[in-house]
Amino acid sequence: MNTSSTSRTPRRQFIKSSSVSISTLATVHLTSGLRAASPNEKVSLGIIGPGGMGRNHIVNINKRKDVEIAFVCDPDTSHQANAAKLVESGTGIKPKQVGDLREILEVKSVDAVFIATPDHWHAPAAILAAEAGKHVYVEKPCSHNVHEGRLMIEAARRNKRVMQVGTQSRSTKHVMKAMELLHNGAIGRVLVAKAWNSQKRSSIGKAAPSAPPSHLDFETWLGPASKLPYQRNMLHGIWRWWRAFGTGDMGNDGVHDLDIARWGLGVTTHPRRIAALGGKYFFDDDQQFPDTQNVLFEYAPSAEDGRPRQLIFEQRIWAPYFEQGYENGNAFYGTNGFMLLGKHGGWKLIGPRNKLREQMSGSPDLRAHHDDFFRSIREGGTPNADIEIGHLSSSLCHLGNIATRIGRVLEFDPKHEQIADDVEANAMLSREYRKHWGKPDGA
Fold it and tell me: Less CB within 10 Å around the terminal CB: N or C of the chain?
């Protein structure tokens, strides 16, 4: 697609006021950003970070008739070339290859971007995209820290852009049905939810700083993150285990199950108290995040019944054993039964006397999540995994990692998103940025 020559009606003027209150931001109605009146016009799309999960997005988007990938962007030219080839092989149209995401954002005919970069680029790229008038699909966790998530919400609401987070269980039928049952009282009042991340990861080994490969623009890859020397066990994919770039496996895989746990528990705010124990019990390598974690989140009593609620997270990324039938999964404990759920596999609803009352199979539906995103762009409204939902669930990962690292109970103020009486822990709600064009305003 020749994006520079496409004729379309002008985009609406974006709201730039930063004085809108948070309560107002949360209720802004999202509007369609397509410039054409015809619902048959293709959405022009840029893929930022087309390796790994970005490649999965391309495979699915290639099958769509209502979307056209106009750009692929990556600081690794080998990823650029592979992604462009994949798009062309599936659609017959070769997208433009760029290494700097600003080249996409400057093109007015691009409607939306998919951001499947390392975690440290999620918020900077999403905020820049929203400010440029693009709708955003951003991978999980949506942010690298709690403060970034709030800035993302503000950017999406201020510019009236759709911002969908890549927790596809929010659009998956068997999970949606399970949530409907839980919220309608199928097991009574759900007071405790549990999420577990149990699988076998590989050691990343130990390495010394070295020169980056010639096909990688490491300076652009670093972006606004702290300046660190390249080493071979830092990327690709391995960045997840480095604090400057990732959020550990709690933010990588755990966020999916934490999101489902929070959803089923029916809580729509942050927890008030977080306690955790964990560390590196198994791996002897350069990983900077725990391979073993147990985290407890306590939510304030609800206005509905005056009872607090608890969310439990367990992580063992050296134990590839299924718990209660699920490698990664959830359990919901109610006053009249419990439910076991796996995003892969389905769920079982157990009533009094351990009687199986109902069950349903299923697997994550990425295509349905894409459908929801593009439908929200065309029709307006809030997507299933709206940025505010993603922020609350991603923040569980950040708070859990902070509590594990600090080794003491955190008293969290959900309204102001601050940790009380703990200067060291409170500083970890944000991060240090180097001087860079990607640093979010207000960070």
Answer: C
> Do 141 and 237 fall into the same domain?
no
In this prediction, residue 40 carries a pLDDT of: 60
With a cut of 70, list the residues of the chain below it in pLDDT. 1-40
Determine how many CB atoms are found less than 10 A away from the CB of residue 292: 18
- Are β-strands 273-279 and 292-299 bridged in parallel, bridged antiparallel, or unpaired? antiparallel
Tokens encoding 334: 């109610």
Q: Are 48 and 104 in contact (CB under 8 A)?
A: yes
What residues pair up with 273 in beta bridges, in sequence order? 298, 411
Residue 185 maps to a domain: yes
Q: Per the domain annotation, does 9 fall within a domain?
A: no
Name the residue among 144, 318, 146, 148 with its Cα closest to residue 247. 144
Q: Which of 17, 11, 12, 13 is nearest to 155 (CA)?
A: 17
For residue 10, is it within any domain? no
Residue whose C-alpha is closest to residue 291's, from 245, 241, 360 = 241
Closest CA to 96 of 223, 216, 3, 218: 3
126 with 141, same domain: the answer is yes
Contact in structure between 109 and 3 (CB atoms under 8 Å):
yes
Residue 310 belongs to what domain range? 173-205+219-367+395-427
Do both 121 and 225 map to the same domain? no
CATH code at 126? 3.40.50.720
The four Cα atoms 97, 98, 104, 107 give a dihedral, to 10 degrees, of -70
Both 239 and 120 in one domain: the answer is no
Q: Are residues 200 and 226 in the same domain?
A: yes
CB 310 within 8 A of CB 330: no
Residue type, 171: S
pLDDT score of 33? 52
Per-residue confidence (pLDDT) for residue 27, from 0 to 100: 40
Tell me the β-bridge partners of 192: 310, 333
Return the pLDDT at 23.
37
Distance CA 328, CA 72 (A): 32
Sheet with 190-198: strands ordered across: 355-360, 346-351, 337-342, 328-334, 190-198, 309-316, 292-299, 273-279, 410-413, 418-419
CATH number at residue 276: 3.30.360.10
Q: 358 exposed, middle or buried (CB, 10 Å; 0-12, 13-18, 19+)? A: middle
How many domains does the chain divide into?
2
- In terms of domains, do 98 and 185 share one? no
CB 20 within 8 A of CB 158: yes
Distance of CA 260 to the CA centre of its chain: 13
CA–CA gap between residue 84 and residue 70 (Å, rounded):
10
The letter for the amino acid at 328 is: N
Q: Both 194 and 308 in a single domain?
A: yes
